[in-house]
Design goal:
Number of domains: 3
Structural class: alpha+beta
Low-confidence stretches: none
Mean pLDDT: 92
CATH superfamily of the largest domain: Bira Bifunctional Protein, Domain 2
CATH class of the largest domain: Alpha Beta
Largest sheet: 8 strands, mixed
Bound molecules: zinc ion
Helix content: 25-40%
Distance between the termini: 44 Å
CATH architecture of the largest domain: 2-Layer Sandwich
Strand order of the largest sheet: 11-16-17-24-21-20-18-19
Number of helices: 18
Radius of gyration: 31 Å
Length: 587
């Protein structure tokens, strides 16, 4: 950790002491338990029988400001365990720290924020470090309140936790708060629930998301998109089983290299079966199913492959980190002279896909071998160089910018990763194109070349939608739920103004449905305002309001999810315009 970070941490930790001091004064009987600085701020855990809510933050922050404005000294000292037992006699949490110090044979380190009168000063058990005085604490803000168990253990008492943060300047703080707000607006877990896209039921299992009708509609549109695009490029589609024999994964090398990410085996009929963590081994068998000649290549096998990988429960997060997911996977088997053309084709498909999503903030990382590293011994130096050169040439020819990462390649081949930054500023891999020297050897793949000899094909794995689950999380946050019309689960909502208009509304709905538009009719007996508000939460692109006036003239009044009214048009005109928006994948 560098010096700047140390200072920031000392400042945040001092701010937490000020929070504790303020709360003891405001809430007699409150027992402070603990409070560290954390990555983006600090928190404070306390034991209090009364009610404290976020509504109290204004009052608490005012008291904190009073303490900070007085620029009180923060002084370090030590107590003997005996003295500590006396000073903190009323607080079992602090006594526990004192006993810990006693066990280690140490004195108890304390910090005091000194008010003019000794009685008003605030003493806390703490190892430090701190800034010298409260005036050195920058602009701060209390953020949220939550429950937390003492020592994080559910067998212990539930305490209350307040999160806060502080920064050197007001500008830094404002920027951070703005980022938090933006991230919350785009939080895929909240939007996923509001728009009924997916759900995670504890009864079904953590990390095992369920696709609800709206979410699956988006996935199906993406699946259809990929199936059609791949078919046009000569891909054939297959499905391989979700569980397979241990031998298969021994041959592929997954058992041995990938154990930690695999589920324990299922024992049936005296043999072990594993959930597949990748779909590659099955694809190798499909290639081997018959003898291939040089004329048959390239062979491109696509699979929406359902895979299971073990993730620690603490790492699971919404749709971003899950234990079971489906990849838009494919394996391309080709001759060496076909590598460049095949890679170019994949890159072009990728570019078109991203363009259709209106997505342009991505960059490429090229993971290469390190000639000195023995882990790359699977193929000769020349083979690595030829493969790496082919990847670079394709990126260069397509004028794509990329960063090279030497020594970052996995042991079996170089790869291209498409990277993007998510709303929390963290980098995510959204697509991968992986070159593979290993599996053709392990599964002894060959084709008959022009001279009638056996030759080894090259294998390229590519997962353009690395995982439909993670990709949906990414899309939700990217669009903040306002998907482009072609992806929207419900593209238009017909809203009758009165009961008299329900029949007409249904007729409009039928006409749209017959034209391939995903439409719903809101015939609930709610007010117009309530229906519009709900449609806006659902981020439905078009609301078609129909009353007597529209019914008489066979029209609809169009309202966009932005709130803009674009006026009254005939049903026919609306059908024509929405069909164009969908087919041209306009936003
Ligand atoms: Zn401290
Ligand atoms: Zn693969």
């Amino acid at each position: 950790m560098n010096k700047q970070n140390d200072q920031l941490e000392a400042m945040r930790h001092s701010c937490e002491h000020v929070l504790t001091m303020a709360m003891i004064k405001l809430y007699p009987g409150l027992l402070p338990a603990m409070g560290p600085a954390i990555e983006d701020g600090f928190y404070f855990d306390f034991d209090y029988s009364g009610k404290i809510s976020e509504a109290d933050f204004i009052k608490i922050e005012a008291e904190m400001k009073r303490i900070i404005n007085q620029d009180l000294a923060i002084v370090h000292s030590e107590l003997s365990v005996e003295e500590a037992r006396e000073v903190f006699a009323h607080n079992p949490y602090k006594l526990e720290w004192a006993e810990e110090a006693d066990k280690r044979g140490e004195r108890v380190s304390i910090y005091t924020i000194q008010e003019e009168s000794q009685a008003d000063s605030f003493v806390d058990v703490c190892k430090g470090p701190h800034v010298e005085s409260t005036g050195k604490i920058g602009p701060f803000k209390l953020l949220s309140i939550a429950g937390a168990y003492w020592h994080g253990d559910s067998k212990n008492k539930m305490l209350t936790r307040i999160y806060g943060t502080c920064f050197p300047t007001k500008e830094d703080l404002d920027q951070y708060l703005w980022r938090l707000e933006e991230a919350e607006k785009r939080n895929h877990r909240r939007i996923g629930q509001e728009m009924e896209l997916f759900a995670i039921f504890p009864e079904i299992g953590q990390g095992l998301p369920v696709w609800l009708p709206n979410g699956f509609t988006i996935r199906r549109v993406l699946e259809d998109y990929m199936l059609e695009a791949e078919r046009k490029l000569g891909y054939e589609h297959v499905i391989t089983p979700v569980i397979s024999r241990a031998e298969l994964f021994k041959t592929s090398g997954h058992l041995g290299f990938y154990d930690e990410s695999m589920y324990p085996p299922i024992e049936v009929d005296n043999e072990k079966l594993y959930l597949k963590p990748m779909s590659c081994p099955g694809a190798m068998f499909i290639y081997k199913y018959k003898t291939r000649s040089y004329r048959d290549l390239p062979i491109k096998l696509g699979e929406f492959g359902l895979v299971y990988r073990y993730e620690k429960s603490g790492e699971l997060h919404g749709l971003q980190r899950v234990r079971g997911f489906t990849q838009n996977d494919a394996h391309i088997f080709c001759r060496e002279d076909q590598i460049a053309a095949e890679l170019t084709e994949v890159i072009n498909l990728l570019k078109q896909f991203y363009k259709d999503l209106g997505f342009d903030k991505y960059w490429i990382r090229l993971s290469l071998s390190d000639p000195k590293d023995k882990k790359y011994a699977i193929a000769s130096r020349e083979e690595w160089e030829r493969a790496e050169k082919a990847l670079k040439k394709v990126l260069d020819d397509n004028k794509l910018e990329y960063e090279e990462a030497p020594g970052e390649a996995v042991f079996y081949g170089p790869k291209i990763d498409i990277q993007a930054v998510n709303v929390f500023g963290k980098e995510d891999t959204i697509s991968t194109i992986q070159f593979d020297f290993n599996l053709p050897r392990k599964f002894d793949l060959f084709y008959i070349d022009t001279s009638g000899e056996k030759a080894r094909p090259y294998v390229i794995h590519r997962a353009l939608i690395g995982s439909f689950e993670r990709f949906l999380a990414f899309l939700i946050e990217y669009y903040a739920g306002a998907f482009p019309v072609w992806l929207s689960p419900v593209q238009a909502l017909v809203v009758p103004i009165t009961e008299r208009n329900i029949e007409y509304a249904r007729r409009v709905g039928r006409q749209l449905r017959e034209n391939g538009v995903r439409v719903q009719v809101d015939d609930r007996s709610e007010t117009l305002q309530a229906k519009i508000r709900d449609a806006q939460i659902q981020k439905i692109p078009y609301m078609l309001v129909v009353g007597d006036k529209e019914q008489e003239s066979e029209t609809v009044s169009v309202r966009l999810r932005s709130g803009e009214n674009t006026g009254q048009v005939s049903i026919k005109e609306f059908v024509a315009s929405i069909k164009k928006v969908i087919s041209e994948k306009e936003a």
